[in-house]
Amino acid sequence: MSDRNAPASDPSEPQASSAPFHEQVDQRPGGDTHQVADGERPVLTTRQGAPVADDQNSLTAGERGPGLLEDHHLREKLFHFDHERIPERVVHARGYGAHGFFETYESLSDITRADLFQHEGQRTPAFVRFSTVAGNKGSGDLARDVRGFAVKLYTQEGNWDLVGNNIPVFFIQDAIKFPDLIHAAKQEPDRGFPQAQTAHDNFWDFISLTPESMHMIMWTMSDRAIPRSFRFMEGFGVHTFRLVNAEGRSTFVKFHWKPKLGMQSVVWNEALKINGADPDFHRRDLWDAIEAGDHPEWELGMQLFDEEFAASFEFDVLDATKIIPEEQVPVRRVGRLVLDRVVDNFFAETEQVAFHTGNIVPGIEFSSDPLLQGRNFSYLDTQLKRLGSPNFTQIPVNAPKCPVFDFQQDGHMAMTNPTGRVNYEPNSWSGAAGGPRESPDRGLQAHPEPVEGVKLRIRPESFADHYSQARQFYLSQTAVEQIHLRDALVFELSKCEHPPIRARVVSHLRHIDEDLAAGVARGLRLGLPDPAQVVSEVRDDLPPSPALSILLNGPSTFEGRKVGILATDGMDAERFAELTQALTAEGAMYELVAPEVGGVEDSDGRLVEADEKVDGGPSVLYDAVALLPSEPGAQRLALDATSRDFVTDAFAHAKYIGYVAEAMPLLEKAGVASDLDEGCVALDAPGSATRFVETCRTLRYWPREAEVDQT
Ligand code: HDE
Fold first, then answer.
1. How many separate domains does the chain show?
2. CB neighbours of residue 223 within 10 Å
3. Ligand 1, atom 30: nearest CA belongs to which residue?
């Protein structure tokens, strides 16, 4: 229906990402059988290549007798099936990946010698995997959670992995607390639930005893944790890194990804319902957008600063629970990341991709952030566990796209094996026979940062302030966002069975904002507890940072968004044409939702196929809705609970609603006819479709939210 079938390929795609993935991994004849015409189908074989005569029946002694040990085809088939799964990631198990490229806007050679930043217009192939953190592999996409934003850049001097999140801070300051944090967040060990949610006692118990998490909690309780899709969220490298140029000069950097389409989130009640209607909402959105040729794009931003700034900044730049406000150090946009190719095989690419913070390239280095240092240790371990062999770097999605020469050898599943005699260095064999040599000029160097001190297990004094930036974040939100954040805390804490845990969390909120603390206490019907003890004075002089709000950083167009058009037989053909043309002109998509998936017959007698039957296409799946039934059709829909929900949900979620006069019976039965507001746009007059689409650019009609929920 909508523009989904538009050609996806762009002739300007980089070479490296244009080869079909199966050509790299599956050279077997017939490996890609779906492309073989009928009549030319290859013969089914065993894994050893022997032709198979019967794949429907196992070998038995007699017609109804026991199975035979010699049925090696059955044995091989079941053996392989039994081993199809690899361990899921202990965190970030639920994820979705896509291929693309990174393009540098201008040379950054004055700042870094990293290969990918040397020339204007230079393109580097990329693979990105987005994820949630806490849920298992099969969990719903709309969990309230941090999103992983892991980017593998296949540079000409090795793979650089920027393994980030959609939130710029983290729960903890030291990697030693990571297993505790994750144990507390995931399902409780005795009962095995709740899955993919932090709304339970163990999580909030840990958080209430870990005040350093308060800034992160503000972010995870905000709408950042329920993004509309991966395409509409920011990404962050979180830690401070170093860039080093050819002269050895070092500059500190924090990395940002800025979505071209602006930021957007859903509301909580909508998230709960999306998880039921389409648990794959985010992965489907990414797949559909790329397949429609609507390639998602982010700009890479850098906050660059020197030692002097780091020393004068009010917080420690090595503390991953702190940001540097963009208003203080502006984000310089240095290039763009474009995702233009879906995976050929989910397992081969998205499941087997192995990211590692330790994968850096010459010109990019670590800082001493204790969280980053711990991560550098952890990722190799986890890859060996998941992929089962140190040769996981030879799996195509992980393999560098530049030459690799080393003296590592053997191991499980070694696929690229050296042929010469020499497997060590130094060696005295001359020429090519001697193998690769080190390159002090081109190779990875560690920036000679002076380091000294006694061995200690201690948290630095400069990490002690846990509330000031949490307060700054909260106060930087619009009123609508502050209410969402408060309601999220009330929801989560209401799921905690132990009242002392609820009270302990509120005791921390009192240092962030008294109104927030009082609001949450009221929502829990809890007396206001004393403020938690603090070791460092809370600052109330940090200015609000508008960059922290989603609503202040939304899109300027309705591009990339989707409208659900609810219609019936007799739909006005002219209104439909106007609306769909206006949406297409804006770069937006639409789906037709109808009582039967076979479609509707419009006023010109044409059959228009539907994308969804109304039961499978609730309004939570769309950014805005349009009601285009005929009058008898609206009367029929008014008798159907699901169709009424389509309208009441769209209304309650503050969505823009376009409607024709014939839809009134449905609006009335849904109980909203007398409340129609500026967010409801009549589509009867010519030109009104364009006005509707322009209105949709602000995404939601937020004033309605206060009317709908007055508690
Ligand atoms: Fe990770 N993290 N992490 N993490 N992380 C993993 O590696 C770990 C942290 C992040 O799509 C694991 O391959 C430790 C911060 C992403 O495949 C594991 C600590 C940030 C992904 C691991 C952290 C992240 C992971 C599990 C505390 C944001 C998914 C599976 C010191 C900057 C990558 C795997 C993908 C995955 C360890 C904290 C981002 C166990 C020890 C902070 C996006 O190695």
1. 2
2. 25
3. 89
Determine, yes or no, domain membership for 646. Answer: yes
The answer to whether the CB of 129 is under 6 A from ligand 1 is yes
Residues 91-117 have a mean pLDDT of: 98
The structure tokens listed for 51 are: 């032709």
90 Cβ closer than 6 Å to some ligand 1 atom: yes
Is residue 82 a part of any domain in this protein? no
Q: Is the pLDDT of residue 7 over 80?
A: no
Question: Contact, 607 vs 601, CB < 8 A?
Answer: yes
Q: Is 57 a catalytic residue?
A: no
- The residues pairing with 562 across neighbouring beta strands, listed in sequence order, are 589
Share of the chain above pLDDT 70, in %: 95
pLDDT at residue 580, rounded to an integer: 98
Question: If you ran DSSP here, which 8-state letter would residue 41 be given?
Answer: P
Which amino acid, 684? D
Taking only the tens place, the pLDDT of each residue in 631-647 is: 999 999 999 999 999 99
At residue 50, does pLDDT exceed 90? yes
Q: Is the pTM of this model over 0.90?
A: yes
> Is the per-residue pLDDT at 1 higher than 50?
no
Q: State the residue range of the domain holding 630.
A: 556-708
Please, are residues 384 and 185 in contact by the beta-carbon 8 Å criterion? no
The arithmetic mean of pLDDT across residues 54-75, rounded, is 97
Look up residue 79 and give its two tokens: 């053996």
pLDDT of 188 > 90? The answer is yes
CATH number for the domain harbouring residue 301: 2.40.180.10
H or E stretch at 270: helix 268-277
Our answer to whether residue 92 is catalytic in this structure is yes
Mutate to test the pocket of ligand 1, among 378, 386, 395, 398 (most ligand atoms within 8 A of CB): 378
Whether residue 508 is contained in a domain is answered as: no
Q: Is 356 in the pocket of ligand 1 (CB under 6 A)?
A: no
* CA-wise closest residue to 416 among 437, 390, 439: 390
Separation of alpha carbons 173 and 195, rounded Å: 25
